[in-house]
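VWFA domain-containing protein (Porites lobata), 214 aa
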Amino acid sequence: MNCWWVFSLLVVAVNFGAEGKQKICGKKIDLAIVLDASASIGEENFKLGKDFAKRLIKRFTISKDKVQVSVIAYSQYINIASRFNDNNDEKSLDNTLDNIVYEASSSGTGKTLETVNFEVFTEKSGARSARPDIKKVTVVVTDGWSGIGTEMVKEKVGQMKRRGIEMFAVGITNSMKDEELQVISSHPLKHHFFRLTDSMAENQIIDSIVKQVC
């Protein structure tokens, strides 16, 4: 057999093995995924953000006892596409993400974070915020260009952090605004602020988030 062919088979086998050993998180987490659907993102990047969300969800054990997921998309309007107390599983969350449309309007990041804080992380929406054994996590996929300005975003996200919600900022597009993305992120920044510029970056970012929260 050709040596190059043997080498290629070995590479495929190693990669398949690594894929099969990806960590699946089964801890008790309320996870909110927030997707920026504003005009500055662009439709292709919005699709990339939705694909990222799908692949992130696959790394968690979705159930009422383990990881609950809420999906929120926003531009001028805020779309709480799924809440923690919806009867979600991986397939239904995939369908939810497929059905979210690209609004392509202004970017209401501050108002959206306020909504996530006071309407999503609530008992009414199925959040288990009062339980000390439940970790609260929000992943925001945005370019950091909000209409409200960085200082107002800082105020809104500060309210979330004071409630113990761990914040991740995933910057999308090549013209992202670092200042606002860093304001959104919990500390240390190197574990909470990432750049999703293409599909090649997805695995590394997802691995880092799963490692951090689990």
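Residues 3-20 form the longest helix (18 residues). The first strand starts at residue 29 and ends at 36. ok done for today
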